[in-house]
């Protein structure tokens, strides 16, 4: 963006920029945009495609966009073959990757989020077609040779800047884990396995969210009102974990998790194919293949650190105390059914928190309208990074649902950084999962000299505003909003030269750090006090209520963490060497060893473990990232969560690099900068030592 255009953009939205410097009782433009129903302007003369892509004004456009991308890909492959080794080789590879990702990533979102089945089906075909091409390119010997000629020349490599060298290494890593070193026959087998896994991944992801059903006559009639009905059947599409009715929770748990033979077969085949692919290309297991390049490095390393953590014994004792509190509460609430079961954990831990600290969500929601929370995020980003969120009116056809909001992210001196599409509201057939999707990665375009702006989508499932009130969030919803916005700002502020490492395209066990860090801001009164006001009276949320909410998080915290450890270990075992037993038998064994509550016969929780797709062998990343985020918070923001100097340092040392720098080096970088800062002291315990991370997990 030119200096002139940037100035016009900032002047146009000057009211929003001045808002963040003072307290107002009225909504700013960004707050108003989210606290009211959208009013679309009818455009009779222009029909745009999704995200402004002209071809995507109808489902058939996906095939057009796919063919266009594949044609451009052929040209770029030929260019890579013929180019002399140098920076231009890496730039060509990145442009090739970008050409495919711009279509595949967009389709990956539309296939799960668009309300029109025709769009979803067309997007799914695009994902499979482009995914197949990607796997063939990753085993293209001539293409690999052009990159190898660069990396094997020490004189040329010495002239590469660090980002270019890392991206070149990452592209070579993609070749290696795809089996580029194999002979023709085995390479073709690897490609076939990749393509098969694309289908299996998609099948499992879709079916893992589908409801189960049971005859109405099998459930007591007075409980029918708690579930959806379909003719003579009851449909159960979730665990109803927050229901105060013991029997409702038990029925939902047993029916929703009842084994589905076809889905079980899909998961078993998926795990078998992953192992076969990993061993085919030279790895001990799929876990070893998946964790190469992450902070963990290998599966067994961090598992052993968890077992031998200095704080583990203390943690086990606290977990036992948590379960005892839950058992006592269940005896109090249900004397005739006092055994603590897996379906009780979420509900009873919530009851204990509410009873001890009086944190009924309905007491908080009036202070947490969606608009006020968005204003709070805008204020926070402005003070930390000099960034503002500016509401824009999407053009006709640009969004897939009329309630989607579009935000421009604008820096006070750098100008427009990118766009965030906010798909926040519940609708039929929309996944009940909070997610961040990269639609287009940022990169420096050598062909145009311009920076390609990143585009992302945040997807939540919030209630719609009503005639009498805006959308009101519970504290948990507000934290989830902050979490997902952490991913979005990582994408916006990661101004990398190469899209291959843009924003969240980094090691999985580092990608959650910026989002989890945002949860700390969401529970700090110095941040909350800037935006949490009653939507009717304008009264601020009392500090005592925030203090109670923060204290309540410690209640049953050990048991909650123990559950996450169980999930992480189960994921690791599934992706280790074959166990010669069913996934359900493995689940039962791991649940007994790592959780503490009994396995329920005729259930298969693993069939609802959709993270096995995007986070296969990497579910531990949530625990690892939480430990790192905790360290960053304590050393950077706990003294002053609104400090601009710390915000800029955090952006410069961590967010700006995306995946262009080793995660541990980023953690060490911000640590070392703090050690030599004259304004801030750093605790000597802060380090990038893996054992320190694991020890801290048991103290979170």
UniProtKB/TrEMBL annotation:
EC number(s) stated in the UniProt entry for this protein: 3.4.24.59
Entry cofactors: Zn(2+)
Record's keyword terms, sorted: Acetylation, Calcium, Cobalt, Hydrolase, Iron, Magnesium, Manganese, Metal-binding, Metalloprotease, Mitochondrion, Protease, Transit peptide, Zinc
CDD domains: M3A_MIP
Main location: mitochondrion
Peptidase M3A/M3B catalytic domain: residues covered: 240-672
Location of this chain's protein in the cell: Mitochondrion matrix
Catalytic class of the enzyme: hydrolase
GO biological processes: peptide metabolic process; protein processing involved in protein targeting to mitochondrion
One Gene Ontology cellular component: mitochondrial matrix
Cofactor note: Binds 1 zinc ion.
Pfam families associated with the record: Peptidase_M3
GO MF annotations, alphabetized: metal ion binding; metalloendopeptidase activity
Catalysed reactions, semicolon-separated: Release of an N-terminal octapeptide as second stage of processing of some proteins imported into the mitochondrion
Task performed by this protein: Cleaves proteins, imported into the mitochondrion, to their mature size.
Annotated family: Belongs to the peptidase M3 family.
PANTHER family: MITOCHONDRIAL INTERMEDIATE PEPTIDASE, PROTEASE M3 THIMET OLIGOPEPTIDASE-RELATED
Subunit field text: Monomer.
Protein's UniProt name: Mitochondrial intermediate peptidase
């Amino acid at each position: 963006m030119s200096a002139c255009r940037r100035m016009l953009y900032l002047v146009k939205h000057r009211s929003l920029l001045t808002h963040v410097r003072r307290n107002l009782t009225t909504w700013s433009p960004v707050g108003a945009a989210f606290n009211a129903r959208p009013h679309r302007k009818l455009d009779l003369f222009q029909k745009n495609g999704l995200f402004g892509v002209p071809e995507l004004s109808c489902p058939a456009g996906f095939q057009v966009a796919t063919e266009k991308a594949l044609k451009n890909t052929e040209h770029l492959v030929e260019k890579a073959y013929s180019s002399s080794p140098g920076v231009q080789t890496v730039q060509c590879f990145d442009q090739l990757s970008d050409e495919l990702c711009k279509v595949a990533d967009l389709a990956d979102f539309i296939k799960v989020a668009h309300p029109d089945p025709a769009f979803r089906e067309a997007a799914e075909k695009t994902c499979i077609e482009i995914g197949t091409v990607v796997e063939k390119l990753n085993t293209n010997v001539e293409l690999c040779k052009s990159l190898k000629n660069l990396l094997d020349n020490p004189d040329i490599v010495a002239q590469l800047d660090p980002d270019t060298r890392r991206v070149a290494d990452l592209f070579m890593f993609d070749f290696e884990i795809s089996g580029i070193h194999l002979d023709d026959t085995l390479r073709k087998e690897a490609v076939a396995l990749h393509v098969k896994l694309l289908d299996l991944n998609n099948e499992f992801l879709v079916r893992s969210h589908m409801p189960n059903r049971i005859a109405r006559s099998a459930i007591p009639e007075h409980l029918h009102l708690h579930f959806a009905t379909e003719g003579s059947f009851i449909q159960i599409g979730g665990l109803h974990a927050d229901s105060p009715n013991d029997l409702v929770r038990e029925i939902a748990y047993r029916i929703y998790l009842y084994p589905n033979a076809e889905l079980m077969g899909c998961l078993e085949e998926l795990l078998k194919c992953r192992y076969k692919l990993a061993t085919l290309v030279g790895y001990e297991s799929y876990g070893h293949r998946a964790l190469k390049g992450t902070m963990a490095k290998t599966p067994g390393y961090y598992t052993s650190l968890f077992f031998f953590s200095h704080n583990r014994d203390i943690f086990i004792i606290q977990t036992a105390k948590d379960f005892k509190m839950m058992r006592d509460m269940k005896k109090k609430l249900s004397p005739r059914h006092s055994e603590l079961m897996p379906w009780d954990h979420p509900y009873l831990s919530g009851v204990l928190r509410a009873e001890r600290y009086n944190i009924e969500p309905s007491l908080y929601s009036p202070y947490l309208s969606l608009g006020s929370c968005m204003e709070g995020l805008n204020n926070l980003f402005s003070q930390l990074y000099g960034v503002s969120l500016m509401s824009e009116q999407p053009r006709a056809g640009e969004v897939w649902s009329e309630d989607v909001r579009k935000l421009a992210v604008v820096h006070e001196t750098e100008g427009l950084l990118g766009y965030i599409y906010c798909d926040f509201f519940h609708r039929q057939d929309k996944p009940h999962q909070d997610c961040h999707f990269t639609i287009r990665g940022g990169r420096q375009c050598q062909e145009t000299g311009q920076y390609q702006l990143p585009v992302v989508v945040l997807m939540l499932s919030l209630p719609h505003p009503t005639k009498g009130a805006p959308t009101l969030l519970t504290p948990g919803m507000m934290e989830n909003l902050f979490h997902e916005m952490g991913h979005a700002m990582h994408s916006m502020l990661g101004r990398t030269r190469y899209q291959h490492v843009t924003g969240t395209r980094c090691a999985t066990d580092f990608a959650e750090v910026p989002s989890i860090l945002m949860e700390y801001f969401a529970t700090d009164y110095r941040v909350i006090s800037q935006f949490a006001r009653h939507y009717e009276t304008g009264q601020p949320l009392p500090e005592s209520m925030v203090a109670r909410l923060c204290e309540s998080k410690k209640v049953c915290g050990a048991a909650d963490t123990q559950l996450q450890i169980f999930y992480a270990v189960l994921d690791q075992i599934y992706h280790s060497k074959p166990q010669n037993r069913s996934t359900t038998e493995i689940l039962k064994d791991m649940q007994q060893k790592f959780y503490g509550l009994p396995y329920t016969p005729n259930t298969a929780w693993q069939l609802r473990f959709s993270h096995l797709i995007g986070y296969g062998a990497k579910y531990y990343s949530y625990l690892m990232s939480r430990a790192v985020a905790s360290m960053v918070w304590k050393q950077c923001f706990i003294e002053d969560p609104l400090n601009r100097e710390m915000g800029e340092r955090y952006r410069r040392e961590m967010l700006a690099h995306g995946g262009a720098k080793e995660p541990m080096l980023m953690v060490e970088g911000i640590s070392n900068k703090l050690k030599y800062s004259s304004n801030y002291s750093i605790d000597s315990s802060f380090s990038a030592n893996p054992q320190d991370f694991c020890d801290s997990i048991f103290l979170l």
